[in-house]
Design brief:
The protein is mainly α. The protein contains eleven helices and no strands. The chain is globular. The relative contact order is 0.12.
Length: 211
């Protein structure tokens, strides 16, 4: 029990290792003072370019993947290992959004969630990435794609998550969907008001079918 709690605490302490804030310090900037003010990959791309954003995403994926791996490592019981790994990964995602080392102002957690899925259930990560890319290519809205990717994870878990852990994965997917919706609540407000930022260049499918 103490070891499990230690692994989960490790996940949270790892979560605030924010790619955008760390790389930003190396560049002499605070990403939260630029663009949308968010310390995530999308704002990093808008304000600092593709190379910087890729570095941010790799750090944010890697830290949560490491937290999930450490969480399940050395536990013989598969169900127990999955639960601890998920909790450690969730703690890393929470640490990313509310970073202890950076004034509790972090990113929105999508990359952190994907890192956990890459270790524990790669098809789930593929579902989320596929939905994000599809929504981005049709609407240009990254935030909307992120929200819908979390929603899509729920039926994916209900129908395709590996047995005998499907109920655990379904519950985890519901938590992920609610978490992403919460962290993107400002995007929802802007979408409703018609003021959400849009990547028009990414709307390749929209332009294709409009011809």
């Amino acid at each position: 029990m103490i070891l499990d709690a230690t692994k989960i605490l490790f996940g949270y302490l790892l979560g605030p290792v924010s790619g955008s804030l760390l790389l930003g310090r190396l560049r002499g900037i605070d990403i939260r003072q630029q663009g949308s003010g968010n310390a995530g990959g999308t704002n990093a791309f808008r304000t600092q370019g593709l190379g910087f954003a890729l570095g941010v995403v790799l750090v944010d994926l890697g830290k949560s993947a490491l937290a999930a791996w450490v969480g399940g490592y050395g536990i013989a019981d598969g169900s127990h290992a999955l639960r601890v790994a998920l909790l450690a990964g969730a703690a890393a995602a929470a640490g990313h959004v509310w970073p202890l080392y950076f004034g509790f102002r972090g990113g929105k957690g999508v990359a952190a969630v994907l890192g956990v899925l890459l270790v524990l259930w790669p098809p789930g990560a593929a579902v989320m990435v596929g939905v994000i890319l599809l929504v981005l290519a049709t609407t240009g809205y990254v935030g909307l794609g992120s929200i819908l990717s979390g929603v899509a994870l729920v039926p994916a878990a209900m129908w395709f998550a590996p047995e005998p852990h499907r109920p655990v994965w379904t519950a985890a997917a519901v938590v992920v969907a609610a978490f992403i919706l919460f962290t993107h609540r400002s995007n929802v407000h802007r979408l409703w008001a018609g003021t959400e930022n849009r990547f028009d260049r990414a709307r390749v499918l929209a332009r294709l079918f409009s011809k």
